[in-house]
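Case study 2.
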Amino acid sequence: MPLLDVARLSTVTGEEPLDGVDARLLLALAEEPRAPVLTLAQRLGLSRNTVQARLAKLDRRGALRSFERRIDPAALGYPLSAVITTRVTQNRLEEVAEVLGRIPEVVEVEGLSGEADLLVRVVAEDADDLYRIAGRVLAGPGVERTSTALVMSKLVDYRLAPLLRRSGERSGYDGRAGGM
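Prediction:
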């Protein structure tokens, strides 16, 4: 089931922020991502149509992400994870992003402010594979310099439940997925 992209729900985009019903729905999905619409409706005390309409609205707004984020790369044979900070020739940023998007082991690329221009998240089979991938990133057109850091441990997993709870509290929701 999709994940929430909080940045796309901000009032900066002109969209209305989450209300308590949206927060409850998304928390229920975070707890049970494969729950059918009917189960979600029963759990939240909402009609099936309300749940479907809310999910459709969140999807249309681009607030729901793909299921891919929940897949562990280690299960696919890529136990190493690393970040490669990348400095790019300024007018070639889009070209570099396009090239990085064609490297299968590049799982995410984010634009940065500061010394580095891009934060490239990669996965690898082993150290030799990481060396090969880092070389491909560095060889990209417009890439001036890279720095690779191996992720040694994940200390806080990707999570949005605390933000959803806060959003729900602001609109009268008590923090539990099933009730007010």
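Helices lie at 20-31, 37-44, 48-60, 93-100, 127-138, 161-170.
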